[in-house]
Amino acid sequence: MPSARPASEPQLFSEVAGPRDPEFARVLRTADPGPALDGPLTFLPPSAAAPADWLRAWNTWREGTLTAVLAPVLLEVVALAVRGCVREILAADRALDAALAPDDARSRSVAAGRRLLARLAVSRGERSLSRFQQWAAAGEMPAHFPTIYAVQHALFHLPLRLLVPAYAYCEWSSAMAARPTNGGTAPGFAQESDRLCRLAQDLLWSLSPNHAVPTFPAASGDR
User: Does a cis peptide bond (omega within 30 degrees of 0) precede residue 102?
Assistant: First the structure.
């Protein structure tokens, strides 16, 4: 069961849910990384940025790092996870490690990913998770947060169309939680969630050979 957020953390679930897509809030609650998400990931705007500067930094990150680097890996890994392709997930994680820059973003992603992997391994008991832990301990697998988050998405059988928006919420909320209390009013996520859902739909459309949202088998096994 997802753990409760600290009382001091910004509460955005009510903004995200809204009448436009109530399933989004359910996905966020189910896939909540809890204490694994202990600080910013790859998106880290200036700590005292005004809302307008925050949004400019976010737009730059969304149009660059998220769209070009993270989203394709998220969608690739969730497809591999439902088919039990653990070695292919290892390869995708290594490729992500090479693509991420700068080094501090890479290290934050790895630290959070390993915390989430440890949490999942305890709660789910999947053989694939044990193998990922062994590879991470041996230095063979970075275990980035986007990789493990996509694996979790597959294990929980969550809607594919909400994977990228839900991951982006992790980036948004973790960066927001790191803002100083005197940093001004933080921008809300409601309008951004709509934009992210459209982005995810466009990515799924472009990645599907038949220009339709791909569906994946529910069962998986180690390979």
Answer: yes
CATH code for the domain in which residue 120 is found: 1.10.4190
Tokens representing 33 are 């990384």
The owner of tokens 């998106």 is 43
HEC string for the chain:
CCCCCCCCCCCCHHHHHCCCCHHHHHHHHHCCCHHHCCCCCCCCCCCCCCHHHHHHHHHHHHHHHHHHHHHHHHHHHHHHHHCCCHHHHHHHHHHHHHHCCCHHHHHHHHHHHHHHHHHHHHHHCCHHHHHHHHHHHCCCCCCCHHHHHHHHHHHCCCCHHHHHHHHHHHHHHHHHHCCCCCCCCCCCCHHHHHHHHHHHHHHHHHHCCCCCCCCCCCCCCCC
Number of domains comprising the chain: 1
User: pLDDT by residue (tens digit) across 17-67?
Assistant: 333 567 888 888 899 999 898 889 999 877 666 777 878 888 898 889 998
User: Does the pLDDT at position 89 exceed 90?
Assistant: yes
Compute the Cα dihedral for 212, 218, 219, 223 and give only its sign.
positive
Q: Of 71-75, 147-151, 190-194, where does mean pLDDT reach its minimum?
A: 190-194
Residue 146, domain member (yes or no): yes
Integer Cα distance of 71 and 99 in angstroms: 12
Identify whether 172 is part of a domain.
yes
CA atoms within 13 A on the CB side of 172: 27
